[in-house]
């Protein structure tokens, strides 16, 4: 029997060798495939966890940015109000009858300049802070992944203060100067007695925006970042962060985004003014709900100004510029509070502007792209 078995093995030796090689190779291939599958699965899990951590960190950065914007907004409103103060003129108008016409002319310039400044300042505040804090957030996430600490708290503080202080002080003063000079040029040709429709108001804002475009849109950095500041810091990494910030602020995408924000802001102002082309119900002022007198439009609601359904055709209503000025001024004199959403009143221009820019998807997309670049 052993002889037969030996002869069988001898006759089929090659088959046994080949079969053994095939079985061993298959086993090795299966083990290799299983190992690569585990490695792939582990890589997928690591990438998923990393994306999740990065997304959570980005969302946390966005929440911090929103809180910072709302925290800075009251100070920005106060700064604009001080630079374009109308209270002194209003007080003098109540007592001085000799300079009344000159005072009204000055109030005309200030009212339109304040509305314009609110549009530009809020857009620049939101857009620049999104960029600034997402650059910091990206670098902080990279430090966490690489277990390094390139960004110290001192560097963060200096970086934040350099940009915020400039925008809230020198940058805002430059912005107001440019806006005021151009508003005065545009408004000189408009008499206080001139009748204006809502379309005329839109045209004025369009003219103002066009006039200041070459001074503001083409060099936005001057209002956000101090000139040459990124070359004058002792900390090398701080210089790099400031240089990176400058690169983002000077890119075409950021400039185009700000231009879009300015356009949206003027639309908000026009919508607010439009509320006062129709007489408020019960004679109450829509700005604050009290019974303070507002420009009357009762004469405007004649039959030729009504639509077929009996509603007022706002496009046919006109008001003297002298009656629009108090409206423009009142829109920018309301206080902005950030204690809760309930404190953001619907007719508060500052709140409406900042709310519009905070939820702006284009700004959020830019912020996400900035974070992605500097977190890798």
TrEMBL record:
Biological classification of the source: Eukaryota, Metazoa, Ecdysozoa, Arthropoda, Hexapoda
Protein name in the entry: Peroxisomal biogenesis factor 3
UniProt keyword Transmembrane helix present: no
A GO term for molecular function: protein-macromolecule adaptor activity
Function noted in UniProt: Involved in peroxisome biosynthesis and integrity. Assembles membrane vesicles before the matrix proteins are translocated. As a docking factor for PEX19, is necessary for the import of peroxisomal membrane proteins in the peroxisomes.
Domain of life where this protein originates: Eukaryota
Gene Ontology terms: cellular component: peroxisomal membrane
Any one of the GO BP annotations: protein import into peroxisome membrane
